[in-house]
Amino acid sequence: MAGQNIGFEDVPGTWKLVKAVGYDEAGNAISQPYGPEPMGRLVLTENGRMMAVICDGRKQIPDGGKRAYASYAGNYIVEKNVLTTTVDAALDPARIGGKQSRRLSMDGDLLVLMPPRRADGEQRILHWERTGPA
After folding, report:
1. Any alpha helices (H) in the chain, and if so which ranges?
2. What is the reported pTM?
3. Which of 5, 17, 82, 105 could make a disulfide contact with 40, Cβ separation 3.0–4.6 Å?
């Protein structure tokens, strides 16, 4: 929702990934970054810890394909509709010790996270449904 202010108190909980899409620089849909059956969990605690695990949820990946997978964890803050995590554990060792920022918005009851645009120009958008407390 445009103009909505999302604060730290709005995000704690356990969230299930329900949609993951990618767009090119012109805004055209270009990919399903975690396949046609994305699977993921995002846990944001009330004391500022988070962890995210995302993957292609298909039981079988087509021949020659590779299962998309990402995970990281750390302490987080929320300021001006941006969730920033100081990473202390990650699949990608280059993330450890760095910061990961995601713009936040709400689409009805869904939490929408938008990471920075990738080096190849792709913009990913992840939609999460709250499934319970942290």
Report:
1. none
2. 0.92
3. 17
